[in-house]
Specification:
It is built from 16 helices and 6 strands. The chain has a 6-stranded parallel β-sheet with strand order 1-6-2-5-4-3, with helices on both faces. α1 runs parallel beside α2. It is globular and about 55 Å long.
Length: 347
């Protein structure tokens, strides 16, 4: 098949057309998760049986993957495999080649989904093994990069959801809401729900948006990270409490915090390599309207060790895995991550 746009993926699934393999990635994690679920539902319905569906958050051995992929579905048309955040470059040569062989020879009754929300992939210059995996998905199935929507597109979605919840939202106010949410679909959905719960008259006003919607979740997260960098753990936890009071979803908090720490880690490595903030932004293909985050990161990491930042990223990555797979309370998982970071040696 080929690399396709989100609109084509949406249309195909609406028509019930399934490919054998899907590789979903990109900056819009909420949309990635949405299509991950849509593919599963299209193949197996809303309540898939464990006999026909398996999710792996760690890369299974090629033998284990092959055994499930080649077996026949049990009283169903398909079996579905979900590989969440598969880091191809951690597989040895034999294993990656075996994975590529499995993708090439998937039976028509098996759908393989590789969904990447916790791994940073440069679509222009992916790492060697990841590039092979993406090429195989593109050749034998579907490769789809899910990008941030524009403010106008998100505004249309916000209006649609508000209408469904019985509220009115003007286009101008919807655009304002999208901009305040940093073009994050998950956060936008949460804020529309909150505003509709608050609205009595049925009209979501500008005053209500400005009073109830945080000006930018990024700002609070950056401040939280700064407090951790400074060793002020109590203040960091206070900011986390405030975010929960504002009904921020744990996945949004963790995603933004993880992104900031990755920016800081990159900045520190670039600093050690005597590269500038502009060099770093260009090397990692930051959009022009996001290059400022690297400049801020350079200012934040002057007195932090690269080992400290690496450990922080590892803790947040592990927490993301738990959020996706564990039944533990999500707030508790976030508080545990902050506690682990707070005891690390920073310099």
């Amino acid at each position: 098949m080929a690399k396709i746009e989100e609109a084509r993926l949406k249309a195909d699934l609406k028509a019930g057309q399934l490919a054998r393999v899907y590789f979903l990635f990109g900056e819009e994690h909420f949309l990635t998760k949405t299509y991950e679920n849509k593919i599963i539902e299209t193949a197996l319905g809303k309540e898939p049986s464990d006999l026909n569906f398996v999710r792996w958050n760690e890369a299974p051995s090629s033998e284990t993957l092959s055994d499930f992929a080649d077996s026949m579905p049990f009283f169903a048309e398909y079996k579905v495999i979900l590989l969440s955040d598969l880091d191809a470059d951690k597989l040895d040569t034999n294993e990656i080649n075996a994975y590529l062989g499995i993708i090439e020879n998937l039976p028509d009754t098996t759908v393989l989904i590789i969904s990447q929300t916790g791994i940073d992939i440069d679509p222009k210059k992916p790492k060697a093994k990841m590039k092979k995996l993406m090429a195989a998905a593109e050749k034998y199935g579907v490769l789809c990069e899910l990008k941030y929507m524009s403010a106008s597109q998100l505004a249309a979605l916000a209006i649609k959801k508000a209408t469904r919840l019985g509220c009115n939202l003007s286009n101008n106010n919807a655009v304002l809401l999208a901009e305040l949410c940093g073009k994050d679909m998950h956060l936008l959905s949460t804020e529309v729900q909150k505003l509709c719960d608050y609205t009595v008259s049925g009209e979501i006003t500008r005053d209500a948006i400005e009073a109830l919607v945080p000006k930018m979740v990024d700002t609070s997260i950056y401040t939280l990270a700064s407090e951790l960098f400074a060793g002020r753990t109590a203040k960091a936890f206070q900011i986390l409490d405030d975010l929960f009071v504002q009904r921020m979803e744990p996945v949004v908090i963790l995603g933004t915090l993880s992104g900031h720490f990755v920016d800081c880690y990159r900045a520190k490595l670039a600093m050690l390599a005597k590269k500038s903030a502009n060099d770093t932004a260009a090397a990692f293909n930051y959009p022009r309207n996001r290059t400022f985050v690297i400049t801020k990161a350079f200012n934040s990491v002057k007195y932090l060790s690269v080992d400290y930042l690496k450990q922080c990223v590892e803790i947040l990555y592990r927490t993301n895995m738990l959020l996706n797979s564990s039944k533990a309370d999500r707030r508790t998982l976030l508080e545990q991550a902050l506690t682990e970071i707070s005891v690390l040696k920073r310099t």
